[in-house]
Each structure stands twice: as C-alpha cells, then as structure tokens.
Specification:
Distance between the termini: 31 Å
Helix content: 25-40%
CATH superfamily of the domain at 443-673: Dipeptide-binding Protein, Domain 3
CATH topology of the domain at 443-673: Dipeptide-binding Protein, domain 3
Strand content: 15-25%
Number of helices: 22
Low-confidence stretches: 1-10, 15-59, 69-121
C-alpha cells in the first residue's frame, strides 16, 4: 500500500493535471518509494499451469522428499539407541508436519494455485479496444478528448484464468435498520450500494490516482472549479424493482427507466432538504448553487465558491429516481412539500435499486441479502454471478460456517486469529482448504466522550480518561497486536497525520491529578469520586456503550473498568447491538461509546465529524459535541485551500488541537484479517472502500 500518499492521491491527481496550467498550483506526485507497493500484503504471483504430467511430477518429487527425510530420521534414530523413544516421537512429529505441507501442495497443484495465498490469477490490463466496447463511438471519442477530468480504466475485473459464475457467500456482522442510502450512514449500507449503485465517476481500485467513468463519460470544469459540465452515458437503465409483480398495484414499476439528469437534481434536492435525515451529506453540498439541466444526458453543477472538495463530491453524485422515491406505493407523486418527510420512512426503504453491476433481489431481515449480477450492465460485468450477505452476529458462528463450507469469505477477529490461525486451531489453514491475509484499512478506533454531559465537559477529565486507558496493553492482549496506537483522527501513515505528536501515555497518577484539578474528589469516603453540580454531589458513575458482537472490545473495556476503579471512577459496560447503538448515538443517548471511522482515500475533510455546526444537527456525525472556534476556522479554510504544503500545516495544527482537547480517546489503527475458502480466487484488497469489495474475485468451480 502506498502509505505516505494515500489520502492525497485521487482528487489531487485530477487537480494537478489542470492546476499547473490553469490555476498555478504546484503539482505534487506521490513519493517515488511508495509506488509499486503491495496492497494489504497481497501478492499476485504467476499462475502455475500445465498438463497432468507436470502435476504428477510435482507430486512424485514431493513424496520422494518425504520418503527420503523419513529414511534419514529412522537411520538416525537407530544409531541413537539410548534415546530411541524421544527420537521416534520427534520423527513422527516431523513426518506429520511434512505430510500436512505435502497435502497442501497437492491441493494447490490440483487447483493450479501454487505460488500465492491471495490469488491464483494475475491482474489483467485492459486495452483501449476492450474499454471502447462499453461506450457509444461518440462517447469514447469524447472521453479521450483533451479537457476531460476522467480517463479510461486500465485494468480489467477479470484476472487471468478467471472463471464465470458461482455464488459468493459472505457475512454481515449485524442487520441494518434500513437500506435507504441517503438516510442510513452505516458502513454496511455503503458497502451494499457499492455493488448495486454507482456515481458519476470512481477511483480505479488498483490505481487510485485515476478517476474513471461511471455514469458519466466526460466531466469538464472551469478554471476555478466552481462549474462542472457532466455528460451522461446514454441508455443506462435502472434495475427491475424488487417487488411482487403479481400484485397489480406495482404495474407502474414494469416500465424500464433510463438514468437522466433529473435523477441527480432530485438527489441534491433530497440531500439539502432539512426534513431529510441526511445531515452527514448536507454539509458537503451546502455550497452547491444548483444543477442546470441542459438535456436528459447533460447538466451543469454550479458551486458558490472554489472549494477543495467540490471535485470529489461532484464526481460522487449518484442518481435518485424521482419517479420512485418521490412517489407512494401506488405510483402517485407526493406533494412537493411532503417529499422530504415521506422520504425518511419511504415504502421502498427495505429494498435497494440502482444501475450497478449487481441488482438487489431480496432482504430477509436478520437472515440475508441476495444480489444477482446485472446481465444488462453497461460496463464490464464481474465474474461472480450471485452474492449472498448472511447476517451472522456471532464471530464463532461465522468461522464455523466458513469451516463447514457455508460461507466463502469472512472477517476474522483478533482472538480467532491467534487461536485458529497462529496457533493452528483450524487445520484448514494448514492444509490449504482455507486461506487468510492481513491488510491495513483506512480506519481507526476510538472512545467517544459526550461533551454535553457534566462528566466530560471538562478537557482535563477527558485527558484523565485517556491517561487511565492502557491502550497498548489492550492492543497487545485483547487485539493480538493487530494495529498501532494513534494520537489523532487521520490515517496513521498519511502526511495529514503529524507523526511528531505522540499518544498520551498510560499514567494513572497523572489521571488522578487531572480529576482533582477538575474538582472531582471522594466526598463520601466510599472510594467513588464526586463533584458538586448545581449544589448537589454527583458521583462519577457513567455508562460505556460497547459493540455487543465484539468480545475483544468488551474484554478491553473490562480491563479499562478495573483501572478506572483504582482512581475512583465507576464505569458500567453496556454491550449493545450495532443498530441500537447507532440509534442511541444519533439521539445522543450515551455518556461514552466505542466507535470507529472509515476514512476516505480521495479526500480529507474534517467538517462532517468535527465542525461545531454539526454538533446539534439531527443524526449528525459530530456525536460527541466537539465545539472549538480555532478548529472551525481551520476546517473552513481547508475547504478553500488548494496548496498542498499549506493544507498539511493546517491539518497538523488541527491534529494538535484534538490531541489537546481529547473529544475522543484515539485508540488504534487496526490491521484487518480476512479468511476465505481456497476455491475463491483473486482475493485482493484496496485502499478504496469497501476495502474487500469482490468485483474482481472469482470462484474456481
């Protein structure tokens, strides 16, 4: 992974191409030592293929080696008569180890997969002729004409030797409250829509400097990036709606519908409608003056000022069909004043629709979500025909299903990684029946403190909470060392992260001093600190919401609870299912919680999470109530600052502010572990989320 430049690649590459000539910006390229780095530790070695004679040869050589080693061990044991029993045991263990290795080699030879864990195929580049077949002739010519912010894709979803068909069964750790992509900000919903829907353009997953066509084949910008002219591909149609067409009330959904410019107008109208629960999106589009429709396949997006994020969020526009989400279940359009209110609880919110490479089939709540390949897709279709997301809350259940062949791919939690992979608890990882790999996702974990409560309104208290948390020990013991302790909100290997700011140390004595400075003392003599609030003593007893499906987080919080008790603070651990936890965070019904953010590889914009204006909006992302005038000023200046060095200085200052204020106890950047059955090939990971998207994977039948 290109660690040092990930967060600058993508939007910077497009801006750099135009800025040098048009705006005088200094074009900066990723550091040369980062180029060519592997993504997430996944190698893609050449595939070993050949006739059965070659396979038999490998098998014969392997078995000959085993026989020879065994013969040497037996001869050695015979010579060592005084220690015969010990040597026989050792020989047996050696032979068993070799037999396991040979068994794995034979499995790989038979499947043609010798040489690598993550892939038996090689990523295949795509020629211009191959790309051109997905466009009309005039669209292809316009795509390649100078002035376009988009470039053709250079890699294919189909690796060498990829096989068509099959069903991929993978797991969601929890169910979702709904499938509306605007009102639901959950990572699982975003992942689902990465298969079902698409935007105007997207970053190429194996080369994130390239913005490639999605629904648009050409996007032009004026000199100051306040106006974007978008040209849509013609003939792109929405999936057939997943309703019961035997019911005559759905007859109106039988008609095929094409993506048109008004679908993007409706998206923006909904995102900016204060009645719609889309605060997480609204702040990004508040500077859009509007969309001018030229015709059904051409429109202009106008921004009120030149902002750094305008390019990424223009490219990220997705269609929202008015004919569906602006209508009731009988197809009657809502009154304009009612659209926003009706949208939050829309009758179609338990389904999904889009134009992407997979179409939504059904969602059985608490059970599974089924997707089928869109055979009429306007771009390159993925190899796998069907994807099934099974909702399995229990981590043991997910691993058991993988072992039993009822799942093909799943995440592995830290304790499982130690017990089942490192210590050999699951034999399939030794024989080659199962594969695994680790990768660095762009994410971090934290503890969020509700600054609007009397417990955590004081910076000294929040800093004390951080000093009382033995983050490194928790990472080593509870997370099996899969990650690194962090000090701020940016990806740990990015330039935005100020590496000179070290995490606050574990120091219970300093934590106790800070609490005393903030007015907390043991007034009643029972060992629990108290503070006078409105003339009445308030005991330092608070609740910590924890992921109910993650026992390692619960165990870490148990250790934290014990250390807090030593300095007079009583913490109650509340394991909560994710959907309930999310709702309580939206409603700010918490004192503290374990949280996590997935970061963007295209843009670093702290506004959504950290600007004061987002602290009081319904369902906003500034859940902890962080309000800081200097931070607000930096965040606002970042949106209109294009110079890279100046942006880095500003982001480092912002990092220092949140480090001092501690609205979060920044915990760690995790190293993720994934496991899959060996018939699943070309498994690869990307810095573009979702990191484990399966569009280029295939199943060896």
């Amino acid at each position: 992974m290109d660690r040092g430049s990930l967060l600058w690649m993508g939007s910077r590459a497009v801006i750099d191409r135009l800025a040098t000539a048009r705006l005088g910006f200094r074009a900066v390229r990723p550091r040369p030592e980062a180029r060519g780095a592997r993504c997430g530790g996944v190698h893609h070695p050449p595939e070993l293929r050949g006739p059965r004679m070659e396979r038999n040869f490998f098998s014969s050589v392997a078995l000959t080696v085993v026989m020879f080693v065994f013969a040497v061990l037996v001869l050695f044991n015979t010579c060592q008569v005084n220690h015969l029993q010990e040597h026989v045991i050792a020989s047996t263990n050696e032979v068993q180890t070799l037999q396991r290795a040979i068994s794995r080699m034979q499995n790989e030879i038979e499947s043609g997969a010798v040489g690598g864990r993550a892939s038996s195929g090689r990523a295949r580049s795509q020629s211009d002729d191959e790309q051109a077949r997905f466009f009309a002739e005039d669209e292809w010519e316009a795509l390649n004409r100078p002035g376009n912010l988009l470039v053709p894709a250079t890699s294919s979803l189909w690796a060498e030797g990829a096989v068509d068909g099959g069903t991929l069964r993978r797991a969601f750790i929890t169910d979702m409250p709904g499938l509306n992509p605007l009102t639901n900000n959950a990572a699982d919903v975003s992942e689902l829509y990465s298969y079902v829907s698409e935007s105007l353009a997207s970053q190429q997953r194996d080369d994130i400097e390239r913005w490639t066509p999605g629904l648009a084949y050409r996007i032009e910008a004026n000199d100051d990036f306040t106006e974007y002219r978008v040209f849509l591909k013609r003939g792109i149609r929405y999936h057939r709606a997943s309703v019961d067409f035997s019911d005559p009330r759905y007859e109106w959904l039988q008609e095929e519908r094409e993506v048109v410019a008004d679908d993007f107008v409706f998206f923006l109208e909904l995102a900016m409608n204060p009645q719609v629960d889309a605060a997480h999106l609204r702040n990004y589009y508040e500077d859009v003056e509007g969309i001018e429709v030229v015709n059904d396949h051409e429109f202009i997006v106008r921004w009120s000022e030149s902002t750094y994020h305008s390019l990424v969020f223009t490219f990220g526009l997705s269609p929202m069909p008015r004919w569906l989400y602006g209508a009731d279940e009988d197809g009657e359009l809502y009154d304009e004043a009612e659209v926003g209110r009706r949208f939050n609880g829309h009758w179609f919110n338990q389904r999904a629709i889009g134009t992407g490479p997979y179409r939504f089939v059904r969602w059985q709540q608490g059970g599974s979500i089924i997707l089928e390949r869109n055979e009429d897709y306007h771009g390159e279709r993925p190899p796998i025909e069907r994807v099934e997301f099974q909702v399995i809350r229990d981590e043991t259940g997910r691993l058991n299903n993988l072992r039993a062949g009822e799942l093909d791919f799943t995440d592995i939690q830290p304790t499982q990684y130690r017990n089942e992979i490192v210590q050999g608890g699951t034999r399939g990882f030794e024989t080659g029946e199962l594969e695994h790999d680790t990768y660095q996702g762009l994410s971090y974990r934290y503890i969020g403190w509700n600054m609007d409560t009397p417990f955590f309104e004081d910076r000294r208290v929040r800093l004390a909470m951080t000093h009382a948390m033995n983050r490194q020990q928790m990472l080593d013991v509870n997370m099996e060392g899969l990650g690194r302790v962090i000090s701020g909100p940016f990806f740990i290997d990015s330039e935005e992260n100020d590496a000179s700011i070290e995490p606050w140390p574990f120091d219970l004595e300093r934590a106790a001093e800070l609490l005393a400075e903030a007015g907390w003392e043991d007034l009643s003599g029972d060992g629990i600190l108290e503070r006078l609030v409105d003339g009445r003593p308030m005991r330092f007893e608070f609740r910590m919401m924890v992921y109910g499906h993650r026992p390692e987080f619960i165990a870490a919080m148990e250790s934290y609870r014990n250390d807090l008790r030593r300095i007079g603070v009583r913490m109650t651990i509340q394991p909560v299912e994710w959907s309930i936890m999310l709702q309580r965070m939206y409603e700010k019904d918490f004192e503290a919680f374990t949280g996590g953010w997935v970061l963007s590889a295209a843009l670093t914009d702290p506004y959504q999470i950290w600007h004061s204006s987002q602290a009081d909006v319904p369902r906003g992302s500034n859940r902890v109530g962080f309000r800081n005038p200097e931070a607000d000023e930096l965040i606002e200046r970042l949106r209109v600052t294009f110079d890279r060095d100046e942006r880095i200085r500003m982001l480092h200052r912002f990092h220092a502010i949140v480090h001092e204020e501690q609205p979060y106890t920044f915990w760690f950047a995790p190293l993720e572990v994934a496991a899959w059955r060996s018939h699943l090939r070309n498994v690869n990971f990307s810095p573009v989320r979702p990191f484990d998207q399966s569009l280029s994977w295939f199943i060896q039948q």
